[in-house]
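Sample pair:
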Amino acid sequence: MRELTTTSYAVLGLLSVRSWTAYELTKQMSRSLSHIWPRAVSAIYKEPKLLVAHGLATASVEDNGERRRTRYSITPEGRRALEAWLTRPSAPPQLESEGLLRLFFAEQGTKDDLLRILRELREQADELKARRVSQLEGYLQDGGPFPERMHIHALIGPLLIEHATLFSDWARRAEEEVARWPDVTETAAPRGLEIIRAFLSAHHEGNGRPKRGRRAGSAIGQAEPTSVRPRRRTSGAGT
């Protein structure tokens, strides 16, 4: 039998709130957990059956018009397993972004490609922030589907909005910086050293905290760019 994963416990956590069909679970995962634990719909559909196999959930068939559907509910053993999972250490946070992955190899493309990637990242962060703000405002209007969990939403919601704001601000500054580069080849590498020095200087000066009135990561574009000379590419250059 397949072992439980973090996604298994995410689904078990949703079952601790109420019973769901597999379809409802995918919708709720998209609405409430996709911003902190994104998973493919196909993967989510497998989890309820696994929980049943482990004795952590039950499955009951119900009529839904012309179709029949299976509804899953948590068992007492499932609640105990969820409580035990909450006591265990968590894996460290990870940042997953296709845009940042493309940015990592941006020197293989063009300056326009890099600017487009940064613009997309900024626009995506702005869209995410707008959605999260709208969701929090909705909670104030109608209490949301689970008003008894409002204290949990109040902890996570602001963090997600602040993260999106930080990401958007960084992408905007990075766009402004890259716009001044001659290209994305090694000729711009000396400017990279200036950015790193400026960032570390601000970081150490603030003891790891941004100064009042200065956003974190503002060293991007902080130092005045200097002229850079094209350097002859040598064989065996390292990465």
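The domain at 6-85 is CATH 1.10.10.10 (Arc Repressor Mutant, subunit A).
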